[in-house]
Amino acid sequence: MTSGIFYFYSVNDLLRTPIEFLKGVGPKRAELLKKEIGVATFKDLLYYFPFRYVDRSTFKTIDSLLTADGPVQIKGRIVGINETGHGRNKRLNAIFQDQTGSINLVWFKGINWIRSSLKVNEEVVIYGRLKAYGGKWSMPHPEIINPSDLGNGLQPIYPSTEKLSANGLHSKGIEKLISELLLQPFSFEEKIPRDIVKDYNLPPELKAIHMVHHPVQLDDAKMGRFRFKLQELLLLQLELLLRKIVSSQKLGGHRFEVVGDHFNTFYKSHLKYELTNAQKRVLKEVRADVNSGHHLNRLVQGDVGSGKTLVALLTMLLSLDNGYQAAMIAPTEILAQQHYESIRDDLKEMDIEVALLTGSTKKKDRERIHEGLLSGDIDILIGTHALLEKTVQFKDLGIVVIDEQHRFGVAQRARMWKKNRVPPHILIMTATPIPRTLAMTYYGDLDVSVIDEMPPGRKPVTTTHSYESGRLRVFGFIREEIKKGRQVYFVYPLISESETLDFNNLMDGFNAISRAFPLPDYRVSIVHGKMKPEEKEFEMNRFVRGETQIMVATTVIEVGVNVPNASVMVIESAERFGLSQLHQLRGRVGRGAEQSYCILMTGDKLSKESQKRVQTMVQTNDGFKIAEVDLKLRGPGDIMGTQQSGLMNLRIADLTKDGPIVSIARQKAIAILESDPNLSKPEHFWLRKKLVHILQTKPDWGKIA
Ligand code: ADP
Ligand code: MG
User: Fold this and answer.
1) Is 351 in the same domain as 440?
2) Which CATH number do you get for residue 98?
3) 376 lies in the same domain as 340
4) Most buried of 106, 323, 480, 638 (most Cβ within 10 A)?
5) Confidence at residue 644, expressed as pLDDT on a 0 to 100 scale
6) Contacts (Cβ under 8 Å, ≥6 apart) of 402
């Protein structure tokens, strides 16, 4: 350090200086900065990045606006102001003019405050996006800028809040503070390993900070940001990989060395079809894991219908061959029941004891099962989360298969681990297609296998969209399918916030369908969340056996149910379902040799997003493509649910957009750990220090995932 009062500060001290001491801040603003945007120190403010930049050097003219997309900047004057409507419909309108024409500006909120700040007939610059209202163009909530505040070139725009703005810390105010801050003599050690810096020509940290705050051109900002995103994601990937290594090595696992009678007999004599290459490959990956002496923590991702159950079954047989039991957990009772029946059927000619345990298993049976598990008489246990209960103990459990894990929390997985002295291997099956780069992060501590091939002979499901007005035609089509001997699902949305409404909706639908498809020619089943498990099972089984041709249901059938003869899936109010749910539901048909159909029924008015979802479904059957669109529409948090939240809080990178950087980070993280497993090279010191800190502050994590 060389200059001024910071002479005696070390690098870190300067970064840790409370923001209060920055020129122009003081105690009051410091308090606000901390409360409103979490900025407490010099460091926090340095990394408080603009969310966009405005090119202050170019303006559009009003007559050219129709060809503009994205936000535009126009110089002109406000020539008239008026208010319309009352209460919640109140609007503030202003007519804005330049030499080429005029447009309407409109505000729905903060009307009084904005009205008092608008100046008529003075030159101002407006910035915003055009929207069409009732056939006319207008600009809602434009930013109004004093031309003298416009710098040259790119102006950074910082996120601010109402309270900060009221205290002079709107974007412009924050920009001033940051300019002041950048005068401080910061210096940084290089955190990113030399090779990576070189490969990507990364600017040094301090330079990158300047590039992000004050870019000369947009590419500078992008490059600066790239550096920080890569830094952040590299650290995250290293963390995830270390957790994976630590848990697999520290825990150790049963070694399934032999491929014995169970596996071989089944494979040679009872397999109904040739495994797909993808199934073979995944099985090989799993076998390598369970024969390694390490603990298996593998996620098998495969689209609905790709044949995950068979891979699970073969793995369980491997466990039996090595003297261990196996268990499989399904998210719903119906699904557990189905797995139980199909697996028992698959194994009927073999001497293997399979049991089913769910919440509705009778006490007497339950006791019998508990005994059988302890004595080892039961080889394979299939069930729901009832299986997690402490009273369920095994003689020696080798592996747990968890089907459709997105319904199972991390903590529940951990409970399975505790069922044995040596924790059983964990194999997770999921049909929730998530983009690869997201998987690398959310499942970064697991090994991931992908079944990316469908069993042969499947015809892709034909998907169509119908408005309510086309319902009669849809019904006509369904009658023909039923005449051919096919079965049909009608699925209704169920959202817990409005359960009663949804329920009424379902019952109305059921009644309408029963009238349109009357006895004796048609028989209609119904399954919904308010029914008792036995009732659900009874109805479901009637449908499975083909005694009813139509199944009216809520999303309880979403996961895993297998009725190959069902060829039509009608999704009612399809606009209310998310993409991945629509895709899951569609996966219920197209399981047999017949051409299948998915019909998305919607109301006439669709939001842009619903339109996009419906369109995507009509256009593609590819779960991964759908996942990509879903990710763009919803963001990663919503896709994974809250279950994984808290695992990572990325400050700069955005998993929705930064997929390619995630890939780079993953690749580099693997390379780093291969060449320097203990991170003991000097250029890895910073990473090591940081990771030790992270792993120590979240200690229990290694035990669960
Ligand atoms: P998911 O991956 O959705 O769990 P399933 O395991 O339920 O899929 O398999 C879907 C259907 O495909 C089942 O009827 C199953 O018997 C069948 N199947 C699985 N593997 C094959 C294969 N290799 N060839 C033909 N059919 C298969
Ligand atoms: Mg399945």
Assistant:
1) yes
2) 2.40.50.140
3) yes
4) 106
5) 43
6) 328, 329, 408, 413, 416, 426, 427, 428, 429
In this structure, what token pair is assigned to residue 398?
């080798």
Residues 89 and 171 placed together within one structural domain of the fold: no
Alpha carbons 122 and 117: distance in angstroms, whole number:
12
- Mean pLDDT of all residues in the chain? 86
Same domain membership, residue 440 and residue 300: yes
* Cα(406)–Cα(329) distance, integer angstroms: 12
The answer, yes or no, to whether residue 701 has pLDDT greater than 50, is: no
pLDDT of residue 632: 80
Asked whether residue 35 falls in the same domain as residue 70, the answer is: no
pLDDT in tens, 197-227: 999 999 999 999 999 999 988 899 999 999 9
Give residue 496's pLDDT.
57
Please write down the long-range contacts of 634-638, taking CB distance under 8 Å and 24 or more positions apart. Answer: 634/578, 636/438, 636/442
- Render pLDDT for 19-30 as a digit per residue (tens, 0 to 9): 999 999 999 999
Ligand 1 centre and the CA of 590: distance in Å? 11
DSSP state string for 363-422:
HHHHHHHHHHHHHT---EEEESGGGGSTT---SSEEEEEEESGGGS-HHHHHHHHTTSSS
- Ligand 1 centre from 125 Cα, in Å? 62
- DSSP for 198-262? HHTTPPPHHHHHHHHHS-SSHHHHHHHHHHHHHHHHHHHHHHHHHHHHHHHHHH---------HH
Take residue 227 and report the two structure tokens written for it.
């550096």
Which residues have C-beta atoms less than 6 Å from ligand 1? 273, 275-276, 279, 302, 304-310, 431, 455, 560, 562, 564, 591
> Ligand 1 pocket check: which of 279, 282, 306, 310 to mutate, most ligand atoms within 8 Å of Cβ?
310
> Phi/psi zone of residue 573: left (φ > 0), alpha (ψ -120 to 50 degrees), beta?
left
> pLDDT category, 405, cuts 50, 70, 90?
low
Same domain, yes or no: 430 and 492: no
Ligand 1 atom closest to 304 (CA): 3
Q: What is the mean pLDDT of residues 554-582?
A: 84
Encoding tokens for residue 437? 């780069």
Q: What is the pLDDT of residue 58?
A: 80
What whole-number distance in Å separates Cα of residue 155 and Cα of residue 159?
Answer: 13
What percentage of the chain carries pLDDT values higher than 70? Answer: 89
Contact criterion met (CB below 8 Å) for 478 and 521: no
Distance 275 CA to ligand 1 centre (A): 9
Assess if residue 391 is contained within a domain.
yes
Q: Are residues 529 and 397 in the same domain?
A: no
Query: Domain range holding 533?
Result: 462-620
In a 13 Å sphere around the CA of 127, the CA atoms on its Cβ side amount to 17
| C-alpha 174, offset from chain centre | 33
pLDDT tens sequence across 513-545: 999 999 999 999 998 878 887 888 888 889 989
Q: Is residue 416 over pLDDT 50?
A: yes
Reduced to 3 states, what is the DSSP secondary structure of residue 578?
Answer: coil
What CATH number corresponds to the domain at position 365? Answer: 3.40.50.300
Tens of pLDDT along 89-109? 889 999 999 999 889 999 988
